[in-house]
Design goal:
By secondary structure, this protein is mainly beta. The chain is 7% helix and 51% strand.
Length: 469
Amino acid sequence: MNIHRLAIIPLLSLSLALTAVPSAWAAAEPALPPIDPWRYTEDYSYLDDPARRTGAWGEAGKWIRLGESSALTVGAELRLRYERYRNNEFGDAAVADEGYELYRFLPYADLRLGSQVRAFGQLSLTRANRDAGSIGPPDDTGNDVLQAFVDLSFPGAAGAWTARAGRQVMAYGSERLISARYGPNVLRAFDGGMLSWQGQDLRVDGFFVRPVRNDPDDFSDRGDPERRLGGLYGTWSAPGGMAGTGLDAYLLSLSSGNARYNQGSGPETRNALGARYFGKRAGWAWDLEAVYQYGSFAGAPARAWSLASDVSHTFRDLPLHPRLGLKANIISGDRDPGDPKLQTFAVFFPKGKYFGEAGLIGPSNLINLHPSLTLDLGSGWTLGTAAIFYWRQSLQDGVYGVAGNLLRPAGGSRSRYIGTQADVVLGWEVSRHLSFEAAYSVFRPGSFIRDTGRAETVHFFGLEALWRY
């Protein structure tokens, strides 16, 4: 507990320093690479050239020479977050009304031994001051190892092979099926191995891993013996010579010892064959994805599918540079709970708060429309608003949470509409290292929720301070 309290001190000190000298930071930061949530993709090797150093304080601890052919990079993330729910899960949650604090501190070290060997390690020090009746694995895992892996790289004329073994955070594409789960307090990690090939325009990853099962005791997280994930994931940059675009294609396979749906529970093997086309051009941005799933559930065939789109346009010539966006999803649900064949889409390992801030509804048995408007207020301030509309794809299936849990069984209701959600998010990016966010979300239940149980309007409020180095 003390380590979390002590970790607040550098964040508060940094906030005061940033307020006093914002212009010096703005001038020094452009040379530094973007900070990624999983950290191991950041490359500071350019700092080996003294002429490329800017003198920014963020370069300290990055690419520390330990010898002629070895270098060390260190860094950390500190996040403080407050959340409050009223009528969580429409009043059905174990603790429907609660406010709580979440703390996480993620220090890491990246050791490069020549051009071929690398060791990466990261700790996850988390705490959740939340009621015992509602706390879960994404909230608190105590002090544990988030990442610990070794890379062996073999460069060639056409590209480079990299073999990785150990514990790692994984995220692919738009994180609809494999995500770092960055929004919740505890990031998701996997134990296993990966083999990657990186060419000029093509990257292909092959992996076999087990998701890490989070335990509240210190240094007790282990790979889940009941679930295993394997797959091939390829990304082609600028297909057909179209700059600013990309194409993903993948085949994933997940085996679970016990999965639960509206239809029942049992062992499951689910394969996902998918493609994603994404890009940015002339103010437009798009992300289009289609997934077909096949396999078995409780000894019977399982077939499911999903179509997802995310399209936006930024009006750069208008005041506040408004960005209008529209997300639309249609995701299959089970057609007949009395038939052992299953059509409910399996979520695998999706991102947290999949649809908006409240984090109630997950991507199974769903039709969804999500218009949004984001404004650039200047000086690092942004304001985002969104309305989200939810329907059941199949009237024979229930409503599911983000983790794939059955949130509300079908219960014989013939109503399709689940509800309406509205979000408002105010963000302030002070610098590359420090940001703040305030979010409010309200979810008004529709006819299906009213037909099947408690139907209180859900209110959510969140405050966050994030410091990364």
